[in-house]
Structures are given as structure tokens and as C-alpha cells.
Amino acid sequence: MKSFLLLAPLLLIASPANALADAVKDREGAVRKDKAEMQNDGRWIYNDWQKGFVEAKRTGKPLLIVLRCVPCLSCMGLDASVLTSPALMPLLDQFVCVRLINANAIELAKFQFDYDLSFSTLFFNADGTLYGRYGSWTHQKNPQEKTTVGYQRSLEAALAVHTAYPVNKATLLPKQGGRVPFATPIEIPGLAGKYKRDLDWEGKVVGSCVHCHQIGDAYRAYHRDAGRPLPSDLIYPMPVPETVGVILAPDHVARVESVKPGSIAAKAGVQAGDEFNTLGGQLLISIADFAWALHRAPDNGPLPAAVKRGKSQVALTLQLPAGWRTKADISRRVGTWPMRAMVFGGMILTDLSDEERLTRGLAEDKLGLFVKGLGQFGKHATAKNAGFRKEDVLVELDGKSVRLSEGELIGQLLQSTKPGQKLKATVLRGSERVELMLPMQ
Q: Which has the closest alpha carbon to 45: 394, 418, 54, 107?
């Protein structure tokens, strides 16, 4: 099963690792204020994506759906700029624009994107064909970042795709979402019966919303509770371009700023200044499209690409080695926190640097994960209750001691263990080696 990527208001999680999930103090007030300001806006259809498709069909315009986590501080600057920037208005007026603030009843087959972002955009034809996605980790990491040049480029590219439609329909096929086991979020076990299709505006509106991270959590719990290995794309969703060794400029569709020496991209011949036109046969209109192409890429094997280099078009092939997804940095994703409960008992782990290893007498090629934080409540307190302490260093687990990142170890354990197992762990506590048992959940 491919992971299905959705967005709605984030639930503030009691975790020191989730700075990106920081929310305004009055979340109820923020959501109600947004409704009061936007429900009668002349440009934006408020919280009704079905109405947006009807209007797109009536007008012949492409459909733009912004999915915004209103209580979340991340991407606040981008959201404000999209709503008010004079430079964007002429472009936005060429779309039917919808502002969606919750995901309770969205169609999972249609809405698939990076739900760890607090601001995303999907571009559709009225017939449901997806033109592309927009989402920015640059803005996610900096709530004050208001730059909209990259967003403008994506709007322009989406309009170009619409102009060429339906002649280009076949080329858009790889961009469409995959098959899903549930029609809507409120049908997924773990969410079913707890939420309704509509928000409770007469009660606690935020509490009635299926928050974006809950959908990913529910999918993972659906597999974990059944004793099945988690699919790798649920563990490492929407890999950022850095996973294959490129940094893309945030103010362009997919222009390469730099290439990491020795990386997958470097070995393929990608150069700084290249502009990706396609990846995996998919036409790109944003960096989020690049991530989607990686999301749908094979677990190993060739991934074709076409880049513009100066005035020339150059065909390249990225050779994806087995396990390439595990190199994705998932440490800052909100969806990683529940996975830490499943296999780390709520520990937050960071790989010791070579310098830190030297001071502790640890080899560079051996496991050395520093316990940066410990969860304090529920399943996230399991490691603490099992005797683990903050500032311990995990040096062996289940007889294995090869060097791994936190993300790599999460993936291995979610695909090789089942809830109820206990793994023998060895931690370095000061100069003492301590043996503990780590419960899997």
C-alpha cells in the first residue's frame, strides 16, 4: 500500500521533538476567526472541496485547493502571503480557489500529498485529474518565511498544464494517487466512530477535526496492530530531494542549487543549475512533485529524469540502490513521533558525531544513538518505565551493533518486530554499560 498524504489542522503533541507542530495558544479561536474572515470571501470557497469541483466544471477553470492547518504556527507567513499578495492575485483569479481546513471527509483516493506539512496545495482539472502538488519544507521550518516566488512558479506551471489539457492527460497518469483501502479518514480503524464528517462548530471544533498526523498514525497502526510489517513508504513518506543528494532552490519549480558529492544524483550526472523537467516520467511543477515522484519510485532500480541544462535537454538516470528510502531524514516529521512509541518506547535518538564517538571510545562504524529525550506519558513513557534515561547512548539492540541513524533503525524495527516483543538493549551510561529490555508496541 502506498502512503496516502493528507492535511488538516495539527494536534499539538507533548513532545520536545515536535517543534514543527507548535500551535497558537487559542486554537479554537484561531479556527473560528479563520471561518469568520474566509467563509464569505469573494475569491475563496471555504471548506467545501466538492463545491470547488462543481464550480471548476461550470467555469472551465482549473481547481486550486489549499489545505491549511490553521492552529499550526508553521507556514503561517506563507499562508498570509497567499491570501494577500498582490503579485499572486492575477494568477489566483485564473483558478477556482478552495480553502480547506479539515480532512474528515476528504476522498483518500483523490487527496494524497505530504500531511506533515501545515500548508499544501493541490491543482486539479474539474474531471478529477491531478495536475500537481505544492508544499514547502522551507516555509514549514520558518513560520516567518513569506516568500511566494516558488508558489508563483507552481501556479504558472499548473496553468500551463491546464492549457495543454486533455492532450497531455496520459502524461499526468503517474501523478495520480494510488489505490486506498478506505474511502475517507473516518473509516480508518482508530478514527472510525470517533469523528463525524462535519466539524462541530457548536462545540469544540478543533477536537472534532481529524488532524493530519492522525491519518498517517491510523494507517501505521492499522498495519502494526495486525502484526504486519509497515510498508516503507509509510515510514519514509514523500522523501525530500536531499535523500538522493540534491538541494532544490525554493524559488523555482525544480532547479538544482547543489549536488552532494558521491550521492545518487551526483553519480547520475546531475549538476548545479540543472532544472528538472521530469522525474520518473512525471512532469514537475514544484519541489513537492519531485518528492511525490520519489514517493512512487521503486525500492531499487533505475529512475529516469530529464533536465534542462542551459539551452539543452539532457536525459539522466538515477540508479536507486536497495534501502535508499531509509536515508530520508524523518526526524522532524510529526508522523515520526508515534513510530518512536512503537519501537523506541518514546525515546528520541540522535546519531553521535565522529568527534563525540571519539570522546566516548566508540568506533565510527558502530551503533551510537544518544537518548536526546524521553516521552513522559502513555506509550511514549515505556522506555522511561523500562529504565532508560536521558543521555544514555544505545550501543546494541537485539544483538546488532552496526551504525544506523534513528530513521534507519525505526524502519528496520517496524518491518521486523511485532507488538509484545522485548529486545535486549545495551546502553552506555557514563562509563558503565547497562543492559535493559526494550518493549515493542
A: 54
- Identify whether the C-beta of residue 17 lies closer than 8 Å to the C-beta of residue 331: yes
d(CA 194, CA 212): 15
364 vs 412: CA distance, rounded Å: 20
Please, what CATH class does the domain formed by 335-439 belong to?
Answer: mainly beta
340 CB burial (10 A radius; 0-12, 13-18, 19+): buried
Residue 21 binned pLDDT confidence (cut-offs 50, 70, 90): low
β-partners of residue 21 are: none
What integer pLDDT is reported at residue 13 of this predicted model? 34
pLDDT digits (tens, 9 = 90+) for 75-110: 889 999 999 999 999 999 999 999 999 999 899 999
Interval 236-276: pLDDT, tens: 999 999 999 999 999 999 999 999 999 999 999 999 999 99
Ranges of each domain in the chain: 19-221, 241-326, 335-439
Q: Which among 153, 154, 149 has a CA at the least distance from the CA of 85?
A: 149
* Among 269, 156, 230, 250, CA closest to 3: 230
CATH class of the region 241-326: mainly beta
d(CA 352, CA 330): 17
Domains 19-221 and 241-326 share a fold: no
Mean pLDDT of the chain: 93
> Mean pLDDT across the stretch 339-365?
96
In the CATH scheme, what is the code of domain 19-221?
3.40.30.10
Centre a 10 Å sphere on the Cβ of residue 193 and count the other Cβ atoms it contains.
9
- Are 75 and 116 spatial neighbours (Cβ–Cβ below 8 Å)? no
Q: What's the rounded mean pLDDT across residues 157-185? A: 95
- One-letter amino acid at 86 equals P
